[in-house]
Amino acid sequence: MAKIITVQKGTKDILPTEIDSWHFIENAANEVFSNAGYKEIRTPIFEATELFARGVGDTTDIVNKEMYTFEKSERSLTLRPENTAGVVRSYIENGMHRLSAPVKLWYKGPMFRYERPQAGRQRQFHQVGMEMFGIAQPTADAEAISLAVNYLNKIGLNDLDVEINTLGCPTCREEYKKKLKEVLKPYLSELCPDCQKRYEKNPLRLLDCKVEECKAIYEKPEVKKVITSDFVCPECHEHFESVKRYLNILKIKYTVNKLLVRGLDYYNRTVFEIKSNNLGSQNAVCGGGRYDSLVKNLGGEDTPAVGFAMGMERLISLIPKQNENKLDAYVVSTNIEETLKLVSTLRNAGIKVDFDMTSKKFTKQLEKASKLAKYALILGEDEIANGKISVKNLEKSEQVTLKINELKEYLFNCQI
After folding, report:
1. What's the pTM?
2. Are residue 78 and residue 150 in the same domain, yes or no?
3. Do 308 and 163 belong to one domain?
4. What is the 3-state secondary structure (H, E, C) of the chain?
5. Overall number of domains in the chain
6. What pLDDT is attached to residue 280?
7. For the segment 353-367, what is each residue's pLDDT rounded down to a tens digit?
8. Per-residue pLDDT tens over the stretch 34-64
């Protein structure tokens, strides 16, 4: 009979040999975000397709090409390709606007996009991220960027490039879009098919194109002059200047990248990416920005918001492999009855312990204990008869014999 394998290219198992690295970055997220007052939220893996069409934007590659959509009971459902739209939907549906601002949320979990698998990105991939609602001031933008940098530093990533840009507000952006279309009109036939569609529907997204021929056009002097122009209104300009000033106060180094627009339609004003110099061309590890209109667009009250997301697979690829967490102890004995009682007592006390279920010889059990645990708890017939137990430190090859009722205290004192 033929074996069954993972359903398609772009999915993979996370094996026990890898899971400690995942726990490491997840625990770091919980610590860093919790310390800043963020609460974890978990949203459904699938949502109404309309949520992503309206939230992410029907001109994006995600909505047009990459979503996993299916019909059920005459309703269109989609596996979430990103989590901001789902968090915003939950914010609205659960009345979080009634909470005092800011409402600070963070998340982790799987996302799904049908795209070419690449370094650190699968078709089922994982993201960790945060969203902050209710603060229009640039302090929120600076906090989001600072929180992202702090988290990346926490997991050992320090060789980072922070890029920021401002997209302005819808009002001042309209004039910019008009000028961009004018200067690109002579090159329209040379743009890739996707950019030709974006030219009409959302010209700002042209700058997000990764096709080399398109990127070369954007480097032409007359085009670059428009792209790098300071098109934003005085209010948006002051907002961005404040963000830069706060980042300077926080000693976060950054560069302004006028081509940075991000790939989602909901962003306005500040957008940012953080890149790692230890990756190749696909070197972004974090992306985010401000999205002040999204809550209202999805049926909620007018609410400013800012957030970011990071691909967890890419983070895993950049950090050193974590040492496998060993058991605190392994019981070595051929007396199953006494072993079961001891193991149950120790586990109930919070000690990580296991035992051999097949009554192998002592030498075989000790050999297994040395691979799995810090201490071997030797429970032979003499020890049982005298109410004692031998404890062997498997790293130092030191051994002591204790009364059985002294064992828990001894192990705790050893800072297991």
Report:
1. 0.84
2. yes
3. yes
4. CCCCCCCCCCCCCCCCCCHHHHHHHHHHHHHHHHHCCCEECCCCCEEEHHHHHHHCCCCCHHHHHHCEEEEECCEEEEECCCCHHHHHHHHHHCCHHHCCCCEEEEEEEEEECCCCCECCECCEEEEEEEEEECCCCHHHHHHHHHHHHHHHHHCCCCCEEEEEEECCCHHHHHHHHHHHHHHHHHHHHHCCHHHHHHHHHCHHHHHHCCCHHHHHHHCCHHHHHHHCCCCCCHHHHHHHHHHHHHHHHCCCCCEECCCCCCCCCCCEEEEEEEEECCCCCCCEEEEEEECCCHHHHCCCCCCCEEEEEEEHHHHHHHCCCCCCCCEEEEEECCCHHHHHHHHHHHHHCCCCEEECCCCCCHHHHHHHHHHHEEEEEECCHHHHHHCEEEEEECCCCEEEEEEHHHHHHHHHHCCC
5. 2
6. 59
7. 999 988 788 889 999
8. 999 999 999 999 998 888 887 676 556 666 6
